[in-house]
Structures are given as structure tokens and as C-alpha cells.
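Reminder to self: C-alpha cells first, then the designed residues, so the page reads top to bottom the way the pipeline ran.
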């Protein structure tokens, strides 16, 4: 069940809430980070992972996010009032002394697998090391765990955004995102970031 706004969040000032962009790998998290930044939200990134053929517009990551699994989250104080990308497997390591709103990207699983394989090939690695059936099971288990974790914490709200719908009919979803994060972003600039030409693993309808 998707969580919506609560009075708890409406009463918190924007500089206290951390906006998390999350999802499975290759689900559109980098695109959403680009949209938030274009719309006027400050984002937490160190640009250590630079743009490449798989993400020509950049990854918008913050290296220290990977330290969550090691119990290092002191850097989170820098994320208050900003957006930061946290891959779905790391979400349960977020400490509960902060308040979060999570924009969770969803994408057709077959497209995720195809996009990930292409990225692995571009890196010169073996794309068939883990069979698609096994990877699907891993991803689906992670999604179930994340849903359980989010629903067990009252200081988290979540908005799910379909990458597929975002590329096909962006305006309604951009409006939802803007309202979810306070309604102060420039929606036209957010829309300008969406480039259908980068939707390269689209399944035929």
C-alpha cells in the first residue's frame, strides 16, 4: 500500500526532510535526480561517478551513500532539505532519527534486466553470469523487503513513479512529484530534462 502525505510531514519544515530517490538499478533514478535538480531542488552529489554511455546525463550519486551498510550515516545531516539517491538495497540501513520522503522508481522488469545487461556488456563483463530468472527473484525479493520496511516506519512517506509512464506521458507524474516534495519546483524545467531518446530498452507495446 502506498503511503501518502501525513500531518506529521506537513508540519515539518522543508529543511528538515530528506528527499530520497530510490529504486532498483536501471529503473530511472538518475533521471529523477536530474528532474529534481532542474526543477530547483538542491541535491547531494559529489559527481565522482561521471556520465558515460549508459547514463549520458550523469548518475547524480553521492559516494558515501554506499557506507550505509557499514553503519556510517553521519553524512545524512548534509542531505536535510535536499535530494539524494539511495539504491533500494540500501534503504533499510537508513537511520530513523531523520524524516524521509521517498520517490521510488518502478520500471518494467524485463526492461530493467535488458538495460542492466547492456551496461554490463559496455563494461566488458559477462552479462550472463547471473541468469535472468535468478536476477528477477533477487530484485522482486528486494522490492518486497523495501515495501515492508517503509510501511513499518511512520516517519517515511513514499511516492511510486513508473519510469515507463514518465516517458510516455510525463506531465501528470511530474505534477505528482512536484506536489509530493512541496509544490515549489519548476515543472517546465523538469519536463525539459526528460529525453525519450534515452529510453533505449523500451519493450514493444
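Designed residues (205 positions):
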Amino acid at each position: 500500500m502506498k503511503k501518502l502525505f501525513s500531518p506529521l510531514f506537513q508540519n515539518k519544515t522543508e529543511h528538515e526532510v530528506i528527499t530520497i530517490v530510490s529504486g532498483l538499478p536501471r529503473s530511472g533514478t538518475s533521471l529523477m535526480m536530474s528532474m529534481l535538480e532542474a526543477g530547483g531542488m538542491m541535491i547531494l552529489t559529489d559527481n565522482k561517478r561521471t556520465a558515460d554511455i549508459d547514463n549520458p546525463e550523469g548518475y547524480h550519486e553521492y559516494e558515501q551513500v554506499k557506507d550505509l551498510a557499514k553503519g556510517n550515516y553521519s553524512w545524512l545531516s548534509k542531505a536535510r532539505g535536499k535530494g539524494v539517491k539511495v539504491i533500494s538495497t540500501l534503504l533499510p540501513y537508513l537511520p530513523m532519527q531523520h524524516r524521509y520522503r521517498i520517490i521510488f522508481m518502478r520500471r518494467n522488469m524485463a526492461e530493467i534486466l535488458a538495460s542492466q545487461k547492456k551496461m554490463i556488456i559496455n563494461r566488458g563483463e559477462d552479462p550472463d553470469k547471473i541468469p535472468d530468472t535468478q536476477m528477477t527473484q533477487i530484485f522482486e525479493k528486494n522490492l518486497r523487503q523495501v515495501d515492508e520496511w517503509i510501511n513499518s516506519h511512520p516517519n517515511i512517506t513514499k511516492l511510486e513513479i513508473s519510469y515507463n509512464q514518465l516517458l510516455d506521458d510525463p506531465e501528470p507524474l511530474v505534477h505528482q512529484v512536484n506536489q509530493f516534495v512541496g509544490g515549489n519546483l519548476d515543472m517546465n524545467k523538469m519536463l525539459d530534462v526528460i529525453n525519450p531518446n534515452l529510453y533505449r530498452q523500451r519493450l514493444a507495446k
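Strands lie at 17-23, 83-85, 99-106, 156-162.
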